[in-house]
Amino acid sequence: MSTPNRVYLARLAGVAVFDPNGDQVGRVRDAVARLRATQRPPEVVGLVAEMPMRRRIFLSINRITSIDADAVVLGSGMLNLRRFEKRPNELLVLEEMLDRRVQLDPGGQAGTVVDVAMECSRGGEWSLSRVAVREQAGRLARRGHLHQVEWDRVRGLTGIADARGTANLLAVLEDMRPADLANALQDLPDARRNEVAAALDDERLADVLSELPEHDQVEILAALDRERAADVLEEMDPDDAADLLNELSPPEQDVLLDLMRPGEADPVRQLLKYTPGTAGSVMTSEPVILPPDATVAEALARIREQQLSPAVAAQVFVTRAPMTTPTGRYLGMVHFQALLREPPADLLGGLVVNDIDPLRPATPLPEITRRMATYDLVGMPVIDQNNRLVGAVTVDDVLDQSLPPDWRDRDAPVEGVLTGPARDGADD
Fold first, then answer.
1. What dotted CATH number matches 6-91?
2. C-alpha distances out from residue 87 to 112, 213, 237, 274, 353, Å
3. What predicted TM-score, i.e. pTM, was given to this entire model?
4. Which ranges of the chain have pLDDT less than 70?
5. Per-residue pLDDT reduced to its tens digit, 263-286
6. Does domain 176-273 have CATH number 1.25.60.10?
7. Percentage of the chain with pLDDT > 70?
8. Residue 346 contacts by C-beta under 8 Å, 6 or more apart in sequence?
């Protein structure tokens, strides 16, 4: 493993960080550069790494022993686990510079920053050295010419940016899981966060919104036009869409629900009727439902569908027709492990388990938690007074409701994480 003299930072994003023992610490999310009073390029003082539980920490550049396309390795010493906070004279290179509109000298050709390189001097100091800038394309050109130029040949790299695009920042973020992307969005200024969120496609934005704190969900949704907001709500799971709409005023709820397709809006309207903190308010109205004459092979094919979460795919609920909630009479459920043990041609009607009483829509959350823990269940059916399946509560729903309300918020304290002293001159 080696450390090249020049490293392009957009290519470093997402690379794993390892300690001297070979244990992964986290992944690179950005680089921190210190602005100088002179015209010299900013000095790179460290990297920002994201650890488990969405915690971002600062890694001093002096602690890094090697960098390559696959890994960043730290030297020995204590790792400071204090949450990273940017100082007034610092900039986050990827967050603040990608997609920035700049001009090239000489000639003043307009372009957009697509990457920034840091370079190590003979004395071991890392500085931002080169900038990859794509020329603004003309009307007939599909893509402008790409220039890799010295830092001092580009104007507009620091200071307040004009309106920016999002393509290059999205390219850096595209491989993140929705929860990690939601975490990254919380680090952006509000205007930049809303720009990036709006540039995501409807399905991706729906997944990310489900991972954000409620106040961020509301602000991003409010920044969209109402038709787009309704499209995104249609892509969300009904329970997540209902949770988000519950944060809005009733008139705004009605406007967005009226803009949604009836088939997508009706389950959400039904969920909004239930009392908060009950099975009805936290359940999903779209569990896996099959008739008793469906085969094991059909059930296995259904739970393999990519859009299903692991908790939802862990069991199949068996009912009489119709197969959408509220269904016909509820018969029982079959766990996926049982499906794996049975011949593919066997019918679900002969495998159902119904020895545990289903939940009712009004069952309170503490009772749901107790019963799921007692029977080691990943999901439980919810039936109405007519024995029709109206939904299912899964373990992720219970966890989400059991954690503190601000658990998704980046500013919330993380219990059980040891922190060292704040960054000082030694860390810089």
1. 2.30.30.240
2. 26, 25, 39, 46, 58
3. 0.68
4. 1-3, 53-54, 137-143, 160-164, 405-428
5. 999 999 999 999 988 999 999 999
6. yes
7. 90
8. 295, 296
